[in-house]
Model the fold of this input.
Amino acid sequence: MRFTLNGTAVDVGAHPMARLLDVLRVDLGLTGTKEGCGEGECGACTVLIDGQPVCSCLIPVAQAEGTSVVSIEGLGDNHPLQHLFMNEVGAQCGICTPGMILAALSLEATDTPTLDDVKVALAGNLCRCTGYSAIYRAVMKWRGMNGDVATTTAT
Amino acid sequence: MRTAISELNLHRAASVTDALELLRDEQRTPIAGATDLYVALNFGTLTPRKFVDLWPLHELRQISMKQNTLVIGALATYTDVIRSPLVARHLPMLVEAARLVGGPQIQNRGTIGGNVANASPAGDSLPVFAAADATVVLLSASEERRVAFREFYTGYRATVMRPEELLVSIEVPPIDGTQWFRKVGTRAAQAISKVVVAAIRGDVPRVAFGSVGPTVVRAWEAERMLASGASIDDAADALTKDIAPIDDIRSTADYRQRVATNLLRRFWSETARV
Done:
């Protein structure tokens, strides 16, 4: 199975029905992608396939063949969203953070997102620590908005 | 415990013909976006062992018009539906339904054909197609069958589909009138429905509910009352004959009954004089 992972061509010998999540974590040793609920509710296993956020626990690796996959490791250590998640305390236990950041990247092309846009983009990602406001603030500031989300509730 | 992957066999379809010939010759379960099937795999409840992957079949992902009929390819994802100008114009209630399915991750993979073929009574697109009097197009190696949506489901998670058939598209005839959709779940996004409804206020009102019976249901009695000019109170009473909600982990029968009635009233008041 050949696909591009974080910009580099990879060729894995995994079973075609192996979960993309397991291929990333076990075969390729990239453990930034987390396993949460196993049913598409929590988004902890989010990666990008051809730029679209997907749940890697629900994808047979065969369906990644020929695509470009980006996991959290693909962002390196100096992405502005990573700094904003730290500075705004958008991460506590950290399990949801890789998925949150990758899902938020879908707003990269949106110049002036509203808070609702951010909530919709992150609707598939659960956080049990932060109450979401800090996460929304980090994403809003990344997109150049003021990040005033103090009175909001999650969708 | 998760299903053991090593016991599974996957054939990636090279073409629609390839998939149909395979299904003619042996029992295989089609996989599209895998968003339901892999939940079963993750929970160890997946029973089939042989699968055919339809995801590479881009020709089944098209959304187009055939004369006045909207044709939605079975592999069109919820994201495809949300972005489609044709669906926005001809079947806006499907766009609303698609926006409320899971989060973006699920919308990017889950398909319309998968939603219909999986036959969950909670499938969010099902009331839309039921109210729209859609047609399901089934293809096998030997023939094409066109089945009226109202005849597609035969019981809880059961359809008229034969093992050798693929669901290739859903056809939606032109709709006159105002389309209306509501989903009631635990939260605004990412919830499985407690009650879901799609309705059309045209010359003859059409109303379909999900999650209130073993299959999606048309509210025939309530429709008849509304069409006859009866009061919304009488129509709401009649609705109790149309639906048969149950208690389950997501809600109770009483709650669903009450919500379904309220949704019928809301539909009727919000679409008045338009």
In short: The mean pLDDT of chain A is 94.
